[in-house]
UniProtKB/TrEMBL annotation:
<feature type="transmembrane region" description="Helical">
    <location>
        <begin position="210"/>
        <end position="231"/>
    </location>
</feature>
<keyword id="KW-1278">Translocase</keyword>
<keyword id="KW-0813">Transport</keyword>
<feature type="transmembrane region" description="Helical">
    <location>
        <begin position="184"/>
        <end position="204"/>
    </location>
</feature>
<keyword id="KW-0067">ATP-binding</keyword>
<feature type="transmembrane region" description="Helical">
    <location>
        <begin position="681"/>
        <end position="704"/>
    </location>
</feature>
<comment type="similarity">
    <text>Belongs to the ABC transporter superfamily. ABCB family. Multidrug resistance exporter (TC 3.A.1.201) subfamily.</text>
</comment>
<dbReference type="Pfam" id="PF00664">
    <property type="entry name" value="ABC_membrane"/>
</dbReference>
<feature type="transmembrane region" description="Helical">
    <location>
        <begin position="724"/>
        <end position="749"/>
    </location>
</feature>
<dbReference type="Pfam" id="PF00005">
    <property type="entry name" value="ABC_tran"/>
</dbReference>
<dbReference type="InterPro" id="IPR017871">
    <property type="entry name" value="ABC_transporter-like_CS"/>
</dbReference>
<dbReference type="GO" id="GO:0015421">
    <property type="term" value="F:ABC-type oligopeptide transporter activity"/>
</dbReference>
<feature type="transmembrane region" description="Helical">
    <location>
        <begin position="22"/>
        <end position="49"/>
    </location>
</feature>
<feature type="domain" description="ABC transmembrane type-1">
    <location>
        <begin position="125"/>
        <end position="345"/>
    </location>
</feature>
<dbReference type="InterPro" id="IPR027417">
    <property type="entry name" value="P-loop_NTPase"/>
</dbReference>
<keyword id="KW-1003">Cell membrane</keyword>
<dbReference type="GO" id="GO:0090374">
    <property type="term" value="P:oligopeptide export from mitochondrion"/>
</dbReference>
């Protein structure tokens, strides 16, 4: 069973090995072979010594008779005749003063030479070489895997969750590392000991060896079955955890939505995943193994004694040599099984990783193939294109689309949501390939063109632009490699962004925050336009580039876009038709086909789709202004409820000093870790009982073994036989006992460890969800990092509890029992042997100390790399559109350098301390036998006691070694626990407790802001609210109007209590918000935001998410979706309400997502409704529907609206115009128009408000 597994190991897991690695592994392997052979070869000397001791004892017994003496090395009578035994044999003598000492000195010198020349270097090299070879391979594997993921086509990402990929990058590759590092060399060493052990056995006595061999396959069988079972279970466990990881990642990425709907408890339930009881199986098989081993002892001693006493084929020494040879062989075979477990886990993990590495992407963005045209005109044509998304093959998006986009013209796409407009843009960028038909550029099928080159021709500005968390300048530079500062400035001027950038304190070096969160919508959009322009693109794709902006920003951005369109092929998708009136060609889409084309006026005459859309849309507020805007550098997150992970490049280049203190968590006390395991105390008690019995088995064995040796020096043969038979029966009893105790230990601790891991993951996840929103703004708590932590910390903590406790208990019982036995029989010899124990222990402890240090560094460095990977994968579309995959691959590889260097250093330290620990044991043997011989000759100690004491203490020593070998994982566990406890102990600034704070029955929904001042915790230098004063009565609608970045969304977030004001108060029904119970408050507020976040589950479940305090019935879901004008659309889907919405709702169009979000808000029947630009991202038709749904939802509720389109808020009770964090005027539409100041100007011209 080993063979196929090992072959498999060699072909798959070592596929990243270079010549140098192979050489290192071969030399390491040879060292391991030599190291493995050393122990069995010592047995030859051991056997000679035993014979000497037995003969000496016989001589002493004979010479007690005064009539006998020693003549010519034979026992004789005093009269000179030779003494004959019952079977006419003679007895040798003369050992008393000479032999024992010389034999022991040979033994000593042999060991000394052996130790220095062989042991230290071979055992050190075997570890150091393998560990460093593994580090090199894993480094390559991580790079290759990430590079491969980055060159996958977008369709692959649609079907693979980012959270799962992150888990694979961190956990699975670690498992492979475990399988190809020191485990392999230890495996080789053990197999070598196994082979040499048998050889020594055959040299000594072939009959006995054969008898024992006949039984050994059973041991192998048990080990093999165990490895198989563990591999299967590990695979299942990995799957379960990867799924849980994906859930956690999704939830943490949309933390604002979770908070707004009070979904924290619900999410925790969703995340808890079920691990598998490996413990039971491991326990049962180990029990079997030990049971078989002890039965073998009984058989071997019984048969061996026969050969010594009856047929005289063996001497007691050769019996020992044979028996120990085979015993060591069998033990090493048994001990090789944990290595097989590691190989099996490694194989399971490698399969996932290598399947991805071997997958050929359908569209490879790193491919050098394909033509690059010398001259590009920019004619794009679609020939009968049919397309469906890979993740939803049953829904046809484009259906035989034919159209031509001429070079140098501006072509606009219009049509209802879901008619395929954005899909066309993605096909032009070649994110997907059409299923039928083709897309051509200047007559060439774009599949035949070089993909990086093709994407370099295209500039794209999306509705929700993704900025990377670095400076404004660097974000613009992402547009084109090697771009100069002049080009950046020029692009910024063209995009109307230059003025506002120069007003910021750090100009182009201003950090945009995670996902551009520190910039307002209009600012982000203009930076994105500058990024697209710096490429000097031949083709410009505008996917609703201005829909998310207020009038003033829109006017500015639109003006920028109009400037840059000339001389380029421009494709614009717009829902606000006023923005595309002057396009050269307008193409109307319906059901995946282009149904009409022409200019604005031609299409109005045709009275088709375009005509309907235009008549529906009221253009009153879309008068655009020619006045250039110099928007104030007042910054705010408009993107309030969609927090996706974005790349924190800046976090890597500028690691602030505060970071280092953060990570050096002090190891947590074990007592606290155990406290979390308290509910499992019955299991742990049972397990400890089993472990204690297991621990005492070895000392009992030491006593039985020395008794057998003692029996050989008894004169009476019948007595000898009876003694030996009695001992064999005792061995059988021990065998049965050991089966049950091993099973008990494995099962009980496996179960308690599994439950603990699950509990801690759950607690950690709960603690994360309890933190205030400001905590998530910190780049150190990005969803990628937090998911990685959840995955690794909880399972690492098992290293301090679970099966580890079992090991420690059994080791301690073992040491205790052994020492008691040893000191009872000879305290002098015991003292000497015990002197060596601290050395053995110390080397183990030192090893642990070093490894802990490394574990700390590794973890931190890999978390940073994890951030890069997580953010790159979350924004894969933007990165692919900018053809910047290789930049992220390089960044990731740079992050991997530190852990790699640490791993190489670790290899050497680990090797030396391992070698020293191995060597000390041999020295202990040599010294103690030398002293034992002295005690036998000069103090008349029975040689049986020498063997008993030495074997007892050595056994306790190995137990100590075993206990110290668990120190690395124990140390890792304590650090992981410290990280977790730090999270659990953190008191959130805004408590989500159900009991804290006041609740009241007749909640009216009156809201008042009194002199609120606020800055975001991550940007304390920029004042967002500057003394906000505004109030709204129950049932009224308050609308906030103002330019980007004046604090509109921030005030909404205050009301939700995502943040609390630095000064001033927010009153709800007259109660200060800081005194109100947070879950109670949020349960009364419904929110619909501009980019609603949906969860990866069904439509019904997403709507039910609106109220997490109870079970929402299907009837309520249906009535809410009817109110949101959603019901008819859902019923038209094949799976109705069970339809899965995909990751973040990606399977639905924006209008559909928006209506689900409205239904979700309605379901909880809120007293206060917050609409944060709820319709800005929609096309006219969807907007009408959604607006009607919103008007329906507003009835009888207090409503706060943030609108960038003034037409949507004219019927509000109060309109508050904001600028720079304060309200500059308020009143109804008519009152404000009559005032003829800021609002009037906005409505009539869209001019900026100062």
């Amino acid at each position: 069973n080993f063979t196929p597994m090992l072959c498999d190991l060699c072909t798959t897991q070592f596929r990243f090995a270079t010549g140098k690695d192979i050489l290192m592994m071969v030399v390491g392997g040879v060292c391991a072979l030599i190291h493995g052979a050393a122990t069995p070869l010592m047995l030859l000397v051991y056997g000679l010594m035993t014979n000497t001791f037995v003969a000496y004892e016989m001589e002493v017994q004979q010479l007690t008779d005064p009539n006998k003496t020693c003549i010519n090395q034979t026992i004789s009578w005093i009269n000179g005749s030779v003494f004959q035994q019952a079977d006419n044999s003679t007895l040798a003598c003369g050992y008393v003063n000479t032999e024992i000492c010389s034999q022991n000195s040979t033994f000593l010198s042999y060991v000394k030479i052996h130790c220095d020349s062989f042991y230290l270097p071979t055992s050190s090299f075997q570890i150091a070489l393998w560990v460093s070879a593994a580090a090199r391979q894993v480094q390559r594997m991580r790079k290759t895997y990430f590079r491969k993921i980055m060159c996958m086509e977008i369709g692959w990402f649609d079907c693979t969750s980012v959270g799962e990929l992150n888990t694979r990058i961190s956990d699975d590759i670690d498992k492979i590392n475990n399988a190809i590092a020191d485990q392999v060399s230890i495996f080789i060493e053990r197999v070598s000991t196994f082979v040499f052990g048998f050889m020594v056995g055959f040299i000594g006595g072939w009959k006995l060896t054969l008898v024992v061999i006949a039984v050994s396959p059973l041991i192998g069988l048990a080990a093999g079955l165990m490895a198989m079972a563990v591999a299967r279970l590990t695979g299942r466990e990995l799957k379960a955890y990867a799924k849980a990881g994906a859930v956690a990642d999704e939830v943490l990425s949309s933390i604002r939505t979770v908070a707004a709907f009070g979904g924290e408890d619900k999410e925790t339930k969703r995340e808890a995943s079920w691990g598998i009881k490996k413990g039971v199986i491991v326990g049962a098989f180990q029990g079997c193994m030990w049971c078989i081993i002890f039965l073998c002892y009984a058989l071997a001693f019984w048969y061996g004694a026969k050969l010594v006493l009856d047929t005289k084929e063996l001497s007691p020494g050769t019996l020992i040599q044979v028996f120990f040879g085979i015993l060591i062989a069998a033990m090493n075979l048994g001990q090789a099984s944990p290595c097989l477990e590691a190989f099996a886990s490694g194989r399971a993990a490698a399969k996932n990783i290598f399947d991805t590495i071997d997958r050929e992407p359908q569209i490879n963005c790193f491919s050098e193939e394909g033509h690059k045209l010398d001259k590009v005109k920019g004619d794009i044509e679609f020939h009968g294109v049919t397309f469906h998304y890979p993740s939803r093959p049953e829904v046809k998006i484009l259906d035989g689309l034919n159209m031509l986009i001429k070079s140098g013209e501006t072509t606009a796409f219009v049509g209802p949501s879901g008619s395929g407009k954005s899909t066309v843009v993605q096909l032009i960028q070649r994110f997907y390939d059409p299923k039928e038909g083709m897309v051509t550029l200047d007559g060439h099928d774009i599949r035949s063109l070089n993909i990086q080159w093709l994407r370099s021709l295209i500039g794209i500005v999306e509705q929700e632009p993704v900025l990377f968390a670095t400076t404004i300048g660097e974000n613009i530079c992402f547009g084109r490699p090697g771009v100069s500062m002049e080009d950046v400035v020029k692009a910024a001027k063209e995009a109307n962004a230059y003025n506002f950038i120069m007003d910021l304190p750090q100009k182009f070096d201003t950090l945009v925050g995670e996902g551009g969160g520190q910039m307002s919508g209009g600012q982000k959009q203009r930076i994105a336009i500058a990024r697209a322009l710096v490429r000097n693109p031949k083709i410009l794709l505008l996917d609703m580039a201005t829909s998310a902006l207020d009038n003033e920003s829109e006017a500015v951005v639109q003006e920028a876009l109009d400037k840059v369109r000339f001389g380029r092929t421009t494709i614009s998708i717009a829902h606000r038709l006023s923005t595309i009136r002057n396009a050269d060609v307008i193409i109307g889409f319906e059901h995946g086909k282009a149904v009409e084309r022409g200019t604005h006026n031609e299409l109005l005459d045709k009275k088709g789709i375009y005509f309907t859309l235009v008549t529906l849309q009221n253009q009153s507020s879309d008068a655009s202004s020619d006045a250039p805007s110099d928007e104030e550098p007042c910054v705010e997150r408009t993107n309030s409820f969609s927090r996706k992970t974005k790349l924190s490049v800046c976090c890597f280049n500028k690691q602030d000093s505060g970071d280092s203190t953060e990570e050096q968590a002090k190891p947590a006390p074990v007592s606290r870790i155990l406290k979390y395991n308290r509910p499992e105390w019955p299991y742990m008690l049972l397990g400890s009982l089993g472990a204690a019995i297991n621990g005492s088995v070895s000392p009992i064995y030491a006593v039985l073994f020395s008794n057998i040796l003692g029996a050989f020096s008894t004169e009476d043969l019948d007595m000898q036989r009876n003694q030996i038979n009695g001992i064999c029966i005792l061995f059988i009893i021990v065998a049965v006992l050991s089966f049950f105790s091993q099973f008990l230990q494995g099962y009980a601790f496996g179960k308690s460890g599994e439950l603990l891991t699950r509990r801690l993951r759950k607690l950690g996840f709960q603690a994360m969800l309890k933190q205030e929103i400001g905590w998530f703004d910190d780049p150190k708590n990005s969803p990628g990092t937090l998911t990685t932590r959840l995955a690794t910390d909880a399972s690492m903590i098992q290293g301090a509890t679970g099966s580890q406790i079992g090991m420690i208990v059994s080791s301690l019982t073992n040491i205790g029992a052994s020492l008691i036995i040893a000191f009872y029989f000879s305290w002098k010899l015991s003292l000497l042997v015990v002197c060596f124990l601290p050395l053995i222990g110390l080397s183990g402890a030192y090893q642990a100390k070093m490894l802990t240090g490394f574990a700390n560094e590794d973890k931190k460095a890999l978390e940073e790399a994890g951030q890069v990977s997580s953010e790159a994968l979350s924004n894969i579309r933007t990165i692919a559109g900018l053809a910047k995959e290789s930049v992220f691959v390089d960044l990731y590889e740079k992050q991997l350098e530190t852990p790699y260097q640490a791993a190489k250093k670790k290899a050497i330290v680990y090797g030396i301390s391992f070698g020293f620990a191995q060597c000390v044991i041999f020295m202990a043997f040599a010294a103690s036998f030398r002293f034992g011989a002295y005690l036998v000759t000069s103090e008349g100690l029975h040689y049986m006691m020498v063997f008993r004491v030495i074997s007892a203490v050595v056994i306790s020593g190995t137990a100590l070694g075993r206990a110290s070998s668990f120190t690395p994982s124990y140390a890792k566990a304590k650090i992981a626990a410290a990280q977790l406890f730090k999270l659990l102990d953190r008191v959130p600034k805004i408590s989500l407790s159900l009991t804290e704070g006041i609740k009241w029955d007749s909640f009216k929904g009156e809201v008042e802001f009194i002199n609120c001042k606020f800055t975001y915790p991550t940007r304390p230098d920029i004042q967002v609210l500057n003394g906000l004063v505004v109030s709204v009565k129950p049932g009224e609608t308050l609308a906030f109007v103002g330019s980007s970045g004046c604090g509109k969304s921030t005030s909404v977030q205050m009301l939700e209590r995502f943040y609390d004001p630095d000064e001033g108060r927010v009153l709800i029904d007259g109660h200060p918000s800081t005194n109100v119970n947070v879950p109670f408050l949020r349960s009364k507020i419904g929110i619909v935001s501009q980019e609603p976040i949906l969860f990866q589950c069904s439509i019904a479940e997403n709507i039910q998410y609106g109220d997490n305090s109870r079970e929402v019935s299907m009837d309520e879901v249906i009535s809410a979706s009817k109110k949101a004008f959603l019901h008819d659309f859902v019923m038209s889907l094949p799976d109705k309400y069970k339809t899965q919405v995909g990751a973040q709702g990606s399977q639905l169009s924006r209008g559909q997502k928006q209506r689900i979000a409205i239904a979700r808000a309605i379901v909880k029947n809120p007293k206060i409704l917050l609409l944060d630009e709820a319709t800005s991202a929609l096309d006219t038709e969807s907007e009408k529907t959604v607006q009607a749904a919103l008007d329906e939802a507003r009835r009888g509720r207090t409503c706060i609206v943030i609108a960038h389109r003034l037409s949507t808020i004219q019927n509000a009770d109060i309109i508050a115009v904001m600028s720079q964090g304060v309200v500059i005027e308020k009143g109804s539409h008519d009152e404000l128009m009559a005032m003829k100041s800021a609002y009037y100007k906005l409505v009539t011209t869209g001019a900026p408000i100062s």
